[in-house]
Design brief:
- The protein has about 675 residues and is of the alpha+beta class.
- About 50% of the residues lie in helices and about 15% in strands.
- It contains 21 helices and 16 strands.
- α19 links the parallel β1 and β2.
- α6 packs across α16.
- The longest helix is centred in the N-terminal third of the chain and has 41 residues.
- The protein is elongated, with a radius of gyration of 32 Å.
Length: about 675
């Protein structure tokens, strides 16, 4: 009878608990759905998202890229994942984000699986609560605007953690299979994003040592093979793409890193990553303001939580060693090590700055487990405090998310915060005027290609983020006959005011139309001639020089990567000469120093061979680069050129370039000399 009464009391309690749990899960799902819905409705596609889609299109055409577009690192796993769908989805925010949102959803499942693996007890609820209701910043990155090349790395890293805590404590075939899988995940995650080291390194250590000394000896070669397989994209890129990964490999000194550990790492960046006064869009300087009062407290709370978890982890391992047992690392050890490694990488790396909140992502993912571990290990008052802290954080996370979503709905958010003003009026103008190619800064160029599905091809003027690294579309745009420049003050690098300065310096005019935040420049016309020009065929030219004449052919071989060099200090009066097959009406010449811009005289004289002999047509021309090369129809950026105009044009059959003011500390090098002739019927009298 008593048992029946007790069961009758427990059944309603369990049913109520299940109802509460169901409502909590529905709330968590509902918040995520709201974030996705408002994101695709109010946040335009960015260039970074566009690049993922454009690279996916190249993959469907047979390319096998090793790094992301226009940058020297990050194996594009997202593009490979999107490739099967890319030709079947709309060019819309949802079409650009569905793969990343799907991958981040997998991280949620993996976190729950890890929590279940580590503890099936109901009183570990703080871990599950913080997984379901994480930092508003983490929620934004997962389901609002998923920064490319982070979701695959985090999925693979968490998969490695789950496998690591599943490795049996005895040497078994299952353990070897898991260790092999961890190696593959660790290698692929690192190839995709080096931040993955913060989780994969501790996971690998735990997996290798969980099965005792004999197990470790067996696990190491299996892990190494798996790691080698996973690192194939990284190793191939280093071997096949000279310079790959170097741009992101810089570090700071130990002294500087220690100085950065408190500020900005702990005092500024970390608490805002937890959603207090967070950025409104990753990773901008526009802060939400909500919860700013709690920023210093969050820094202290995290520090205390990490310190307590570290002591708990060290005490457990020390106890095993004190009992003369092989220490068997656990999940907590992975989470503690991940936290310390994340802080160390943020402080040591030369890349992150105060607003690089994405570098804290590993801590945001594993923080619920630190809280859960302390809750389980503590007594009554510790559990009371940790439970209260969890409730507070969950409430603040939900409120911050709601405030953030309202911010996204503001009409000028996309233009002012994201730097993504409305492009549609500009694209309509380009279509109506049959302009199929354009030049724009990085944050605009690839949006154009995405939104038009490459019906309009747009390129950066140069690689603005990674100077010198190849960029797509540039050759096609440079070769096009009609090109517009689509510029805006919302984005740094090539702004309208800077471009207009360059046009003025080059003495070129252009038609100019304004469409909201964008200015379109097109139909360029040089003031210095009103006639047609054409470049002399390099194959018809003969070059010579006072010194190193045997290598003078490099001056006109048409290959931009070769150069002539005099192999001695510059001297006043030394020269290079180019002969034409017959008299030509010369209007302009370019000295191309792009392949080696360091060896240049301070000034030059230009002499033409006329019917009456050699005549100096330009004296002491100062060393000065043109901002761009003019193709005949539009500016082309990316070369280091000295332009010399012959005004009015002159008939000549040879040109001599002579050092007027040498720089005796340098050799004299020239990569190419280009000559342009005109059809002007009124040449000079020379």
């Amino acid at each position: 009878m008593k048992i029946t009464e007790r069961a009758s009391r427990l059944f309603p309690a369990r049913r109520s608990l299940l109802v509460v749990c169901l409502l909590v899960v529905l709330l968590a799902v509902g918040i995520r759905v709201a974030v996705v819905q408002i994101s695709v409705g109010h946040l335009p596609v960015t260039t970074d998202e566009s690049l993922v889609v454009l690279k996916a299109k190249r993959i469907t055409e047979g390319e096998l890229p090793l790094v992301a577009i226009a940058q020297p690192y990050q194996f594009p796993i997202e593009s490979y994942a999107m490739a099967p769908f890319v030709n079947h989805v709309e060019r819309s925010p949802l079409g650009a984000r569905f793969v990343a949102v799907g991958l981040w959803s997998v991280t949620l499942i993996l976190l729950i699986c890890i929590a279940r693996r580590l503890s099936n007890q109901l009183w570990a609820w703080p871990t599950l609560a913080l997984i379901l209701f994480p930092s508003a910043y983490l929620l934004m990155v997962q389901f609002g605007y998923a920064m490319p090349h982070y979701s695959p790395a985090m999925v693979l890293s968490l998969a490695a953690v789950l496998m690591a805590v599943s490795v049996p404590e005895q040497l078994m075939l299952r353990g070897l299979a898991l260790v092999f899988g961890i190696g593959i995940c660790a290698g692929l995650a690192f190839s995709n994003n080096m931040l993955a080291l913060t989780m994969t390194l501790p996971a690998a250590f735990v997996a290798l040592t969980r099965s005792g000394f004999r197990g470790m000896l067996a696990h190491i070669p299996v892990f190494t093979i798996g790691l080698g397989v996973g690192l194939i994209p990284y190793l191939a890129s280093v071997h096949l793409l000279p310079g790959a990964h170097r741009a992101v490999a810089g570090t700071r000194s130990i002294a500087e890193a220690l100085d950065r550990l408190w500020h900005p790492t702990l005092s500024f960046t970390l608490p805002r990553s937890f959603g207090f006064d967070m950025t409104t869009f990753p990773d901008t300087t526009h802060l939400l303001g909500f919860g700013a009062w709690f920023v210093p407290f969050m820094a202290i709370i995290f520090g205390l939580v990490l310190l307590a978890a570290t002591i708990l982890s060290a005490w457990r391992i020390g106890k095993q060693l004190g009992d003369r047992k092989w220490p068997i690392p656990q999940g907590l050890d992975i989470f503690v090590a991940t936290s310390w490694l994340t802080l160390a990488i943020f402080a040591l790396s030369a890349q992150p700055h105060a607003h690089s909140f994405r570098y804290i992502l590993p801590i945001l993912l594993i923080f619920p487990f630190l809280i859960g571990a302390l809750y389980l290990a503590g007594g009554k008052w510790v559990r009371c405090f940790m439970g209260s802290l969890t409730v507070f954080l969950v409430a603040m996370n939900i409120l911050a998310t709601l405030v953030l979503l309202q911010k996204w709905k503001e009409p000028d958010f996309a233009a002012q915060v994201m730097g993504t003003p409305d492009l549609e009026p500009t694209l309509t103008f380009l279509r109506e005027h049959d302009i199929g190619h354009c030049v724009a800064s990085h944050w605009v160029a690839y949006r154009v290609n995405f939104l038009t599905d490459e019906q309009i091809i747009c390129s950066q003027p140069v690689n603005e983020r990674f100077p010198g690294w190849p960029i797509p579309y540039k050759q096609e745009v440079d070769a096009a006959k009609r090109v517009a420049f689509v510029l805006t003050d919302r984005i740094r690098f090539l702004t309208p005011s800077l471009f207009e300065q360059h046009l003025e310096l080059a003495d070129i005019t252009a038609s100019r139309q304004t469409f909201g935040d964008f200015i379109v420049y097109h139909d360029f016309l040089p003031k210095w001639h009103a006639f047609q020009e054409q470049r002399l065929d390099p194959a018809l030219l003969q070059a010579s020089a006072l010194h190193s004449t045997e290598n003078a052919h490099y001056l006109v071989d048409g290959v931009s990567g070769t150069r002539w060099v005099n192999r001695r200090s510059q001297e006043n009066g030394e020269w290079v000469q180019v002969d034409f097959p017959e008299q030509k009406l010369l209007s302009r010449l370019y000295l191309d120093y792009t392949c080696y811009p360091h060896d240049r005289p301070r000034s030059l004289n230009i002499l033409l061979h006329l019917e009456t002999g050699w005549e100096k047509v330009a004296s002491s021309v100062p060393d000065a680069f043109q901002p761009f090369k003019f193709s005949g129809s539009h500016p082309i950026y990316g070369s280091m050129l000295q332009a010399i105009h012959i005004s009015p044009p002159e008939f000549t059959d040879a040109v001599r370039i002579e050092v007027a003011d040498p720089n005796p500390a340098r050799n004299w090098s020239i990569c190419q000399i280009e000559f342009y002739t005109s059809d002007d019927p009124t040449p000079g009298s020379g």
